[in-house]
Amino acid sequence: MPLDSYDRTEPAEHSTPDTEPETEPRARLGLAASLAVHIGVTLLGVAGLVLAFGVGVGSPTDPGPGLWPLVAASLMTAAGMATIVRAALGERVESLRGSARPALGVALAVLFVLLFSFVSVLVALLVVYVLWTRLLGGMAWIPVLCWSLGGTAVMYVLFGVVLGTPFPAPLTAIP
């Protein structure tokens, strides 16, 4: 029967032929840091709620552009509030040292939104697709270019040709 990693009585490097070597338990943040993480998530959800109402939610029969952002922000706010309660009851967040990749993913998503404000959605998609597969996927350049061009082409054919969805024009003209 395997021991819990926190109750380990054997050295970490000990392993038997039929078990994996044990690893050290991940560091956990303290109460203040855990609460800061959860409060940050909750505040992002609340900001999303404010922005969703700002662009207009509409109604279920006549949805406005803010309806789905309202649903997503509501879920984020509820999840953040639930994790605040769990942190207050003693659960702690694991160390955030491995947060660079998710942060880069969020930054690339923000870049996509900013890019399609100035260039077409397809150009923004291609640029972010290249960066995503190269930086987060760790692929070599030839597969990155093949997957990025292919993925952008598939998105164009699926949405532009098959579904007949018009792609939005850039929101801001470049002077």
From TrEMBL:
Keyword annotations from UniProtKB, A to Z: Membrane, Transmembrane, Transmembrane helix
Listed Pfam families: TctB (PF07331)
Bilayer-spanning residue ranges: 35-55, 67-85, 106-132, 138-163
UniProt region (Disordered), positions on chain: 1-25
Annotated InterPro entries: DUF1468
Domain DUF1468: 39-168
Protein name: Tripartite tricarboxylate transporter TctB family protein
Annotated source species: Prauserella cavernicola
